[in-house]
Sequence to fold (386 residues):
Amino acid sequence: MSAFTDQVAKGLACLRWLPAYAGQQLVRRGFRKAGPQHLIVALADHFEPSIVPGVSGRHADLDEQERRLERWCREYPKMADAHRDGDGFPFRHTYFYPAEQFHKTLIDRLAEHCHDGWGEVEIHLHHGVDAPDTSEATRRVLVEFRDELASRGCLPRWNGQGSPRYAFVHGNWALANSAGGRYCGVDDEMAILAETGCYADLTLPAPLGLPQVGKINSLYECGLPLDQRAPHRRGRRLAVGRSARTFPLIVQGPLVVNALRRVGGRLRPGIEQGVLVTHDAPTPARLGLWQQAGISVAGRPEWAFIKLSCHGMDPRDEPVMLGAPIRHFLRTLLDAARDGGDRVHFVTAREMVNIALAACDGRDGDPGAYREYRLRLPGRGGEGAC
Ligand SMILES: [Zn+2]
Fold:
């Protein structure tokens, strides 16, 4: 392939989602704001204490990582405690921690923070960076890290029983080798995730400019064999009346085209992807776009699923993680929802998936009652389960 046609092919791969988007906007517009909504909000934090801003491939030393984490665990509750949803839960991060960077003291501290009620830990993985990874090595690192988390009481089990289950975010957005072989190399990765207990993937959407699968703004089951490369290219949307069977479920965040938006003080045409960063802090206008994505279980549009993402340990983003922008947003969100008759539910990835599973099984009413529906942490009851 010539350099030019290669460029064109790559460009088209990044825009595979456009036809689906156009169709969704036509269909879902009719459902929006039919009545009060339950806003089910989760934040998938690619939580990397080792991050060196602007430099990939380098890691901060362990002392620095411990200092960052300690500061986070001290400061986060001060910010979050004041902003609680109608069920009494604070805004919590789901900490997708890099499995390949396991370090005992860091995970012990993060587990303690989570046991105190400030979030939950799940699995993130960067691999295949210098050379394609193998199935065996991928399976090994996932299982070892899964078992470290499970031994600290951090992972749920189905109905509270059996082997540990986990949620996943792929490093560099290359889920199941979907980035043309870069940052993965493992075609049967989705099968490995399924086999090792992954209940949901929260990697998507990919940032602009990276290959994007054609399915967007959806909660769905993979539609292609899991041992094939990128089996999430096709899928079946979760729906009321049809229990989910193929795991991991794909839980996507919003991807919405918006004409003009103020980013870093300037109006720019853009694409909203639910990413929280300092130069693009959360605002009520962005919340409107997240709702516009219409991510729900088919047949239950009044339960709006809003999965956001961030890199919480990036020092450049500390203001939006802990400072005035997030405090202001959370206060505005809770006030606006109350005034408009909507209800906000701050959830973890696990709770979000439990609520989606309850919707599939035909449960209705208050989604907050289904946070522990199927995937339960040790010592948790099964409210809403039957
Ligand atoms: Zn990462």
About this structure: Residues 62-80 form the longest helix (19 residues). The mean pLDDT is 91.
